[in-house]
Structure formats: structure tokens, C-alpha cells
Amino acid sequence: MSDDFMLDTDDLQRRMDGAMANLKTEFASLRTGRASASMLEPVMVDAYGSMTPINQVGTVNVPEPRMVTINVWDKGLVGKVEKAIRESGLGINPQLNGTIIMLPIPELNEERRRELSKVAGSYAENARVSVRNVRRDGMDQIKKGKADGMSEDDQKLWEAEVQEMTDTYIKAVDAALETKQTEIMQV
Predict the structure, then answer these.
(1) Is the pLDDT of residue 2 over 80?
(2) E strands in 43-165
(3) What percentage of residues in the chain have a pLDDT greater than 70?
(4) SS3 letters for 40-74?
(5) Burial class of residue 18 (count of CB atoms within 10 Å of its CB; 0-12, 13-18, 19+)
(6) Is residue 135 within 8 Å of residue 166, measured between CB atoms?
(7) What is the C-alpha R_g of the chain?
(8) What average pLDDT does this structure show over 83-106?
């Protein structure tokens, strides 16, 4: 490989890891009919004059597979937390029990499962596009190196390395999607 050209493969890998991390975050927010504390991560509560994540105003627990509970620390915020959950679009109806808010997770019907599966597919496609954009940036750097005098053999070596990295991440995205779709369609 050329002495004067060094492709920053660590940067490319870090950016592809970022695309995978983003995909996992998006998948975690998809409700699958099974209770999960991560499904409340996008919910923000108007507490003490600012928007606060729900896990900073109470303890989020999953006592059973179809129930999430939130033990709100400040009694005065119980109503605001309940309102934030109702307005979040999660489709969950909170039930109050003192300072504890219970969120029973309803069964998903077949149509809703198919919709969620399609949403998961679009999240995965966005991740694939991100990975391919990183590959394109790497290939552009290699072309620039070729224009600066890199040999054709070195160019092919670098391109093969970037392509191999891309293929690995695309397979990981596909595997994550398949796992999530199986989880969604499971009754």
C-alpha cells in the first residue's frame, strides 16, 4: 500500500458503528407488545420549567412482560407524567395508583404488527443508506489518492477493504432487521 496515502479506516468504522447504534435506538422505540423501559425514552415531561426525560422524574420498572410502572419521585409531577405519556403517541393508557403510574401494554393485532414490521424495514433501509454514504466517502478519498499518484494496485486494495467493511455492516443491519421483525410478528 502507498506510503503517502493512508485511508482513515477507523473513522469510516466509527461512522458505520454510529449508523448501527442509531438503528438499535430506533428499533428500541418500536413497541412489540412486550413491555420495555426503553419504549419510554422518547417521552419528555414538563418538569420544573424544562422538558425532562421520564427516567429523570421517576423510576421506570418492568415488573411483568406486559406492564411498565413508573414510580414518580415528586407527587406534584404525577399528573404531568401521565399527560406526557398520553400525548406521546405510544398508544398506552396510563393508570394511576398514588405516585405509581402503571402502563399495561395491549396486545398488538395482526395489522398493527405488519405496520410496525414495515416501519422497522424503513429504519433498516435508512441505516443501509448511511453505511453506503460512508462507503462513498471512503471511495472518494481513494479516488483522490489515485489522482495524487497512488498506484492502481493500492487503489484496488483500499477499495476492497472499504467494500468488505461495508458488506459486514450491511449484513449486520439485515440481521438486526430480521431479529426485530421476528420479535414484532411473534404473538
Answers:
(1) no
(2) 44-47, 50-53, 58-64, 67-72, 95-97, 100-104
(3) 95
(4) HCCCEEEECCEEEEHHHCEEEEEEECCEEEEEECC
(5) middle
(6) yes
(7) 23
(8) 84
pLDDT for res 33: 67
State how far the Cα of 159 lies from the Cα of 171, in Å rounded to an integer. Answer: 18
76 is written with which cell numbers?
406534584
CA atoms of 11 and 146, how far apart (whole Å): 20
Q: Helix count (H) and strand count (E) of the chain?
A: 4, 6
**By the 8 A CB rule, do 68 and 105 touch?**
yes
| Separation CA 94–CA 117 (nearest Å) | 25
More confident call, 7 vs 178: 178
Dihedrals phi, psi of 44, to nearest 5 degrees: -115, 140
Rounded-to-integer distance, Cα 119 and Cα 156, Å: 37
Task: Judge contact between 117 and 174, C-beta under 8 A.
Answer: no
Query: Are 75 and 82 spatial neighbours (Cβ–Cβ below 8 Å)?
Result: no
